[in-house]
């Protein structure tokens, strides 16, 4: 994982952690942002946001935390923000301010065991059992919308095991900007259905005390895309994925 990611237990022991959330009052030059580990798109998002914060004279420091806990800590101000989430998070966590420029875009894909499958399995008398990564809100919401029975996992490896052992009929896995766990050879034994179940955009979120900063970040992210910096970061990260560098 990215070399600058710190473990959250260590970070919370640092006395300066609390003032880091008071950007508006103390003008701290560091922002502590929660991230989910072992998601390939995290690397691209971290690189892009580090540059955006640098242009605003700030250093972004990343801290690994479980997905739901990360959201709560950003919402209650213990952290300065959350790396990325879907748009609906803005309504569910009122203390988080959305940076109003899409950070990344992706699709949620269904993965099944049937090598000839082209469409989603048909439900029988019981709801389809589906493996979802805990805290990946788009997957959890989609499973609920489709009337499926979700089995939550803590990692993509666990999702793979559930599908391999026949504990679930399918898994819902994201592909974000071409970055996905599905590129690993471990998933070759399964079939990824050709069309995404749903497409989505991911946004960066900061605690509401950084509302002014959110507007500036949106402006800088737009600049980075116009300048081709985002494309460069995507290509570099995709190359690392192909080479198995992480």
From TrEMBL:
Extent of the signal sequence: 1-24
Keywords (A to Z) from UniProt: Signal
Protein name in UniProt: Uncharacterized protein
